[in-house]
Structure formats: C-alpha cells, structure tokens
Amino acid sequence: MALFRITTTRIAETQRVFPQLSVLLRQLSDASTDLKAILAARIPKEQERVKSFRKQHGATKVGEVTVDMMYGGMRGIKGLVCETSVLDPDEGIRFRGYSIPECQKLLPKAPGGSEPLPEGLFWLLITGDIPTDAQVKAISKEWAERAELPAHVVTLLNNLPTSLHPMSQLSAAVTALNSESKFAKAYASGVHKSKFWEYIYEDSMDLIAKLPVVAATIYRNSFKDGSGIGAIDTSKDWSYNFTTMLGYDNPEFVELMRLYLTIHSDHEGGNVSAHTVHLVGSALSDPYLSFAAGLNGLAGPLHGLANQEVLIWLQKIRKQIGDKATEEQLKDFIWKTLKSGQVVPGYGHAVLRKTDPRYTCQREFALKHLPNDALFQLVSKIYKVVPPILLETGKVKNPWPNVDAHSGVLLQYYGLKEMNYYTVLFGVSRALGVLASLVWDRALGLPIERPKSMSTDGLMKALKAA
C-alpha cells in the first residue's frame, strides 16, 4: 500500500525510468481492496487531465441557449459535468461507459445470485473500473461496520409521527446525521481544500452505510409493529442486510433489491435529485445536508414519486376494467385519459427517446420470476398499447415507458405494498450515484454553482438589441 502514497511527481519521474512500474501500479489497483487508496492514486491524474483540457478548450462553445430553454426548465442546456454516468437519448444510461446489460453481466454478484451487487456499481462509479469479487466484499464489510446510528438519530426516528410521509422522515434523519460529518469538522478546523475530497469520501461512505438502517427503521415504525430491525451481518452484502431489516427473507426479493438499488443509483447530473446534491454541495455543505436536499427534490411527483403515481393509475384500470382487460378496452381507457387532459404515467422521459433500459431489465426480471402475475400481465399489455397511441397524438417525442412504469409492480408482487415507501427505496439507491459524484466534485475543485438569471423584460431588451 506504500506505493499509493507516492506523490504524483515521484510517480511520473519513476515511470520515465521504469516503464514497467505503470503495469505494477495497475496490478496493485486491480488487487487492492482499499477503495480510498485507489482513489487517492487516481485523483491527481484526473485533476491534471481536466486542468489540461480546460487550458486548451476553456473558451470553446459547446452549445446554444434558446429562450425556450430558459423558460422550459433549462432542458437541453449543456451546463454541467457529471463523471459517473451519461444518458444518451437513443442508447439510455451508461455507468462509466457501461450499459445496464453490461453491468448485469460484468459486476460481481452474491454467491448463487444473478443480479449485480450495488457495492460493485458504487466502486465502478467512483473509480471507472469493474471491481473484483474481493473488492466488492470489502465494501460490503466496510458499510456493515459503519452502519450504526448515533443515539439522537434513533430517538428522532422513534419519535416522529407515523403519519409523517416516509420521505420527510428520511430527509429529517439524514439532516440530523450531519452531526457526524467529518467534512464539517475538518472544514471548521481549517483543512486545506486539497484534502476536501477525503472527508467528503468518509462522510459519503458513512452515509451510504447508515441509509438502510434509517430506511428500515422508518418502514418498521410506519407500517409494521415498530419492532427493532435486528443486527447487521457483516458477512452479507448491503442489499441482503437492508432486505432483512425490512423484514423480508425471500431470496428472490433480495435479488430484486440488488437489481433495484443498482439501476436507480444514477442518471447523469441534470435530474432534480442529482443536480440538487451537486448544487448544495457546491456551497461546501457536507454530504448529509447536500443529500437531504436532494431527497426533498426526489420526493416530488415529477421525479421519484412517479412510480407511486403509476401504481395508482394501474389500480384505477383494474377497478374500472378488471385484471383481464383486453387491448381494445385498454386503448379506449387510455384515449379517455388523454382526452381528459391527463397524462399516461410512466411513459415519456425528458431525455430518453427509447424504452428505458431500466424498464427493460425489470421486465426481464418479471418474465423470469413472475410471468403469470396479473399486474405484470396488465403492464405488459399496456406496453403494447400505449406507444402507438401516444405517437398518434403527434404531441409526444418519447412514447416509450420509463423506469417508473415497472418498478412498483415488482415490489407489489413480493409483498412490499406500501406505496408511500417506494421513493425511500429510490432515495437509498440514488445515494450511490450522487455521493460518488460529490466526491469527484471536491476532488476536481469545482466551484460554487451560480448561473446568471434574467428577467423577462431584460431578456426582451437583450433580444431586441441583438
């Protein structure tokens, strides 16, 4: 491990003399289970790469801003850098260059399992490399060891009214966890900005470790008998422990949670939750405060709450038509929905112009494990019927389903029927992506975010002058 502490200058000097050292360093990176040490070796190289790129192309224009973009929620404006994932309109999400099917194939799995472990996805997001089984097991163990909650957060959770929405409870608990922030303490002590990323990393690892405990406590207090969640097994993975704390022991459901927590983790930097964490973090708020802000954005019906909206709509169909609705009956119902001024929930996406790969992998999971489930069969029929109708209206750019059109169906099948809780699961997963990005925000020294705004009058005058 001493090699990871060599300065960037010394590494460069030594590599010129001993080219084989590059291979050795790469082999050590592949073998080491110390994620922070690997990151410490990688950050100087990435800092230099970004610095060189900005020096050469800093004045290069990457796009235009139209009036419609300004009034339309900045949609389509290229104004952020997100290293962890990129969303292509025609291809879908790629995590550090890997598609979801590739992640399902390449990322390590639990013994006997077939779905990727979220720990592996986090390693990939942080480093850009597919981890080994040993590296993923090390992350599982480390998160289990960091999972204990401080007493005041346990007291807070156990005294919140069960009528309070689970997302509000999650946001409150994460905010209260900021008492544990190593970054806040280091900043107050005057630590140099070059060290910021290290404390952001430590806080992020602690927060990710504690989130399943917080989320499971909320679930059992709000929907069950309020009994304890039990002890964490340090030999098991993050998803297994989370599922057990929720009170479920079905191996298939554990596999579903591994898939769910992996695919909901990141969706580039411009969505509300990711952008909010980045924005609040740019003010040097600690990861707890930054992530709590992102959770409050995720709680909105146009973002993370959308999967609940889909289930409510599906229940409406079942009540009015029944489980054995024909395609013709569904077409009639959907046309009535559209003509009444409502949308078809779960269809369309701000960026995607194809079926969401996250929808596809959940559909494949359902085809494998619950092909005869009535709700899944209804969703499958809707998948056939809705896109042609939306195309026929001539008003929809993307008629294809997104992730929210399917996730609730799987949770319902395995007995997690409390729809108000679904966004909490989304939040636990989203922590992986946004916190990995936050570490890199500080490693690259990104400044406080402060775009220029204009009034309508000012914009009109500027256009007239132009």
From TrEMBL:
The molecule here is called Citrate synthase
What the entry lists under Pfam families is as follows: Citrate_synt (PF00285)
CDD domains from the UniProt entry: ScCit1-2_like
| Keyword Transferase tagged | yes
**Family assignment from sequence similarity:** Belongs to the citrate synthase family.
Q: Please state the span of the N-terminal signal peptide per the UniProt entry.
A: none
Domain of life of the source = Eukaryota
Q: Which PANTHER family match?
A: CITRATE SYNTHASE, CITRATE SYNTHASE, MITOCHONDRIAL
Q: Which InterPro entries match?
A: Citrate_synth-like_lrg_a-sub, Citrate_synth-like_sm_a-sub, Citrate_synthase, Citrate_synthase_AS, Citrate_synthase_euk, Citrate_synthase_sf
Reaction catalysis annotation: oxaloacetate + acetyl-CoA + H2O = citrate + CoA + H(+)
According to its UniProt entry, the protein's GO biological process terms are:
carbohydrate metabolic process; citrate metabolic process; tricarboxylic acid cycle
**Active site per the UniProt annotation:** 303, 349, 404
Pathways involved? Carbohydrate metabolism; tricarboxylic acid cycle; isocitrate from oxaloacetate: step 1/2
Tell where it localizes: Mitochondrion matrix
- Report the main location listed first in the record: mitochondrion
Record key words, sorted: Transferase, Tricarboxylic acid cycle
Instruction: Using the record for this protein, list the coiled-coil segments as residue ranges, or answer none.
Output: none
The protein's assembly and partners:
Homodimer.
Which molecular function term from Gene Ontology is one that the record holds?
A: citrate synthase activity
Q: Looking at the UniProt record for this protein, which Gene Ontology cellular component terms does it annotate, in alphabetical order?
A: mitochondrial matrix
